[in-house]
Fold:
Amino acid sequence: MPEDYAKADYWYEKAAAQGHAVTNTRTKQLASFDDVPYNDPVLSMIRHTNEAKWLANLGNPRWEYVLGDDYYYGALRLMTSFTKANYWFRKAADQGYAGAEINLAYAYYHGYGVPQNTMTAITWWKKVVAQGGYSGMKAKHYINIASTAR
Structure:
């Protein structure tokens, strides 16, 4: 039987809207994948389905970031679109998701799908620096590069 993702989405969302227990449980299971490492095979399998789109549309920043990444690289049978990638990166970045903030800053720094603007890029990178960790160190490095290039 050929796969029909649009039809599957339709029935899945219809069942979820009616409060069907299986769909509600599945949503909780998928939302809990925030703790799964990015290169985990289970996560890889799930992120290559329309569930990534569905969860991103629910406002989950991890999945907004994943969907942005998929548009950026043209994964999930999606055409590469910097504009769509930045749309999803911005949604996740507005919720403080560091990976999305870095990618959005990178887009502004290079002008990928948005007007090139080094100061806007640095503003986003500074938000990541404030969060600390490895992403913060990476963002600090990007700020140093951008500052010396001006």
Notes: The first helix runs from residue 5 to 17.
